[in-house]
Write a structure and sequence with these properties.
Elements: E1 2-3, H1 10-13, E2 23-26, E3 39-42, E4 54-56, H2 71-87, E5 91-96, H3 98-102, H4 105-109, E6 113-123, E7 126-137, H5 138-162
Parallel strand pairs: 4-5
Antiparallel strand pairs: 1-2, 2-3, 3-6, 5-7, 6-7
């Protein structure tokens, strides 16, 4: 999650991702883990469009023994559904390394909108680390949810018919 210098969540005080202050500050669980002058800038084209009730859904790490089991398709959708049911979200966002886009992982998360334009400065990755903003609006979220649920039900019917 990104916070401003006052430790307020950025998405709660900003009108959108790109309006001032455009500089985000990361606040790890253990303050000693934050690198000096660590911050991020959003220059993604849709940064100004993403506003209202915004959910950051991401930051998951899967143990190697559980990778390749479909969790990357299930967990993000579960997270978005819980956020929507609780806060009636307008947008869901996350940030990813470009390699995850190239590998198709972002598509498994259910996102179709990917934009370069997040510059993470002075992090453990070095002076400048470029990451992508991935996002969806409410309509895309609901359409994705219906599609996934429909495919799941159809798959279960096919399996039941074979037995």
């Amino acid at each position: 999650m990104f916070y401003n210098q006052e430790l307020t969540p950025v998405l709660q005080f900003s009108t959108n991702l790109a309006t001032p202050p455009e500089k985000w500050y990361t606040v790890p669980v253990y303050p000693i883990a934050r690198w000096p002058e660590e911050c991020a800038f959003c220059n993604a084209p849709s940064g100004r469009r993403i506003s209202g009730m915004v959910c950051y859904s991401g930051g998951a790490w899967y143990h190697p023994d559980y990778r390749g089991r479909g969790l990357a398709s299930i967990i993000p959708r579960l997270s978005r559904t819980i956020a929507y049911s609780r806060w009636n979200t307008d947008f869901t966002i996350s940030v990813v390394e470009p390699v995850l886009v190239d590998k198709g992982v972002v598509a498994r998360y259910g996102y179709t909108r990917v934009e370069e334009g997040i510059d993470w400065l002075n992090s453990f990755r070095g002076h400048m680390f470029n990451i992508c903003l991935i996002w969806m609006d409410r309509t895309e979220f609901l359409n994705d949810l219906v599609t996934q649920l429909t495919e799941s039900v159809e798959y279960r019917h096919q399996v039941s018919a074979r037995m």
